[in-house]
Amino acid sequence: MKFYSTRNTTFTVDMEEALLRSMPLDKGLYMPVRLPELGPDFFNRISDGSLAEIAYAISLELFGSEIPADRLKSLVDQAFPFDTPVVFLEDGKTAVLELFHGPSQAFKDVGARYMAAMMGYFLERSDREIHILVATSGDTGGAVAMGFLGVKGVKVTILYPSGRVSELQEKQLTTLGQNITALEVDGSFDDCQAMVKAAFADEDLNAAYNLASANSINIFRLIPQGFYYVRAFGQVKDCGKPVVFSTPSGNFGNLSAGVLVHRMGLPVQQFVAATNRNHVVPSYLSTGDFSPHPSISTISNAMDVGNPSNFVRLTHLFDEDYDRLTEQVTGYWFDDEATRNAMRQVYQQYGYVMCPHTAVGYLGLQSYQQQNPDTCGITLATAHPAKFKELVESVIEHPVDVPEALAVLMNREKQSIRIPANFEALKEYLMPATV
Q1: pTM to 2 decimals?
Q2: Class of domain 109-217+411-434 (CATH, top level)
Q3: Would you give the end-to-end CA distance of the chain in angstroms?
């Protein structure tokens, strides 16, 4: 399979280069040159399988000529020992896709573990070593840290915005040690992301390291996120109504992943892009004007992105045709008050506890279904509510149980390196190891 740069469609690389290098030097993003047209029948058939079985079937279609089938099967089985169940709030109408049953209790386990398995395969084959740089607004860092912990030939450096992640999210980034280092940046997620992008374009760093990304900058973080859309479809396809997904969105990798499998044939009627006050994409969908801005801090912190990287991928999935994009994707945004009210209302009405990000997705779904009631709507639950325990308890006025996987982190000592929010500080941290 070949991948092109969004800044130069004539420049292409193979699967291994796109996976291990993550980002072309022209600062574009890699996209598949061609997506297989698998059709609704293919997805209807495979969607009855487990997450691992679905991952294998799609991966075989995408990469079967580059990884032996038996090895590919073992890689996806290794990546996905957990499920992504759908839970209905109302019979046949509103459902939640729970994506927090992996090790870090967040949806990004799916992409991070798949990427770790694939990278491990190619590194073992080539005897290379790589240095992964990743920016996180909350959950990416924890998923990447746990997914790559102890992986031979991989060193991971995570950049996160100081004071803008929850306590449990920070513990997941800063307490594992081994091959994982956390850099606490005095700035926003957008600053962290810009620093990582600058590193991939820096000649000195690229000469010193084999740099790779585990952000959704890397197309192999994004591709596997499409698997759980298929798994969710399989759990609701007998409802007899068109299926709609509402995706809480920040950097827009998650939504792009859903659109990607839709382009291959997954029968989805509509995608809802639900954001907090960082609503650059919903505003674009309404006006046609894409105007990035500094990120605004909200209670749904993992979505505090003012200049989403994957917006360009979303447009490329629709061949940069605004009318096609807006026909398939609807955007809504909500402030913190609306988010709190949704968390409270869902708990009081259904006894279901949502994190603030999931609540934004739920609000987006409700808004869409008010105009389109005869649909089966699925909102993506992106993180376990215990990751935002203090906030959630203050809203629903009820204790939130903490899973053992999170509880064990609370007594561990934070270990991070604090740096200013500029690329020079990151480069200064990285380069001494080469002199």
Answers
A1: 0.89
A2: alpha beta
A3: 37
